[in-house]
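ok new one. same drill as before - structure tokens go in, u give me an amino acid for every spot. 161 of them this time. try not to just spam alanines like last time pls lmao
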């Protein structure tokens, strides 16, 4: 009887998150950090799921899963390779930013000035990076998007930069 070989490769935290509670994809601060949009180091792996919100501790890390509606869930997700053998689902930069606005309690964007302050001062995203975001793609999500008015204002503010 042969023993199956065990891979010596340690799973990446993002891969663990994708498998810990699914369906889910990496988003919000974790994805924003991955894409280089926010300068802060992130200590919690944040994901979005159409299921009930949950939080787990696994392998000395905190994994949070935030519920968003099923109609909005599948939009703007990318599959990326972290290593030769590890591929994960992650929000595009645009989707991660929308998810951040949608899931941040107390954020209801009501003016371009407030929106720009949130993006540049609170999140510390550079204006040049914001200009690179695809607002046309973001606008396609509006029909099923939670906090639609805030996301419309987010798109308008970014498009004007």
């Amino acid at each position: 009887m042969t023993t199956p070989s065990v891979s010596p490769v340690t799973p990446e935290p993002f891969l663990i998150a994708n498998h810990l509670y699914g369906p889910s994809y990496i988003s919000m601060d974790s994805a924003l950090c991955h894409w280089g949009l926010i300068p802060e180091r992130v200590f919690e792996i944040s994901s979005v799921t159409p299921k009930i919100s949950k939080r787990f501790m696994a392998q000395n890390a905190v994994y949070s899963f935030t519920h968003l509606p099923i109609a909005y869930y599948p939009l703007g997700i990318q599959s990326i390779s972290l290593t030769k053998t590890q591929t994960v689902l992650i929000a595009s930069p645009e989707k991660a930013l929308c998810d951040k606005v949608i899931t941040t309690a107390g954020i209801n964007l009501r003016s371009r000035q407030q929106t720009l302050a949130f993006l540049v001062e609170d999140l510390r995203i550079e204006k040049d990076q914001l200009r690179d975001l695809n607002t046309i793609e973001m606008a396609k999500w509006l029909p099923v998007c939670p906090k639609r008015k805030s996301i419309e204002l987010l798109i308008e503010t970014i498009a004007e930069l």
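The beta strands are 25-26, 44-49, 54-58, 61-67, 77-81, 87-91. and btw The chain has one domain: 13-159.
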